[in-house]
Amino acid sequence: MDLLREPVILNVTLKNGAVSMNKDQVKGRVEEAKGSVKQTVGRVTGNPDLEDRGTVDKVAGKIQKTFGDVKEQLKDADKPPR
Description:
mainly alpha, two-stranded antiparallel ribbon
């Protein structure tokens, strides 16, 4: 059984050597991780309802993460080039 089928890839902006993520990026990634856990637990225990809730949480997390990524890209686009 492959419990880690989809790795979570972090796409972050580095500022002065520090990692910068907006709240939507963070919350989205957390929700996505929670969804993956629920999905796996549901699959392992044979609970299709829990697996489905995990899928919903995972998709909602991906949407929120993508929204945060777009916000960060727009914010960076406003800055003058170095």
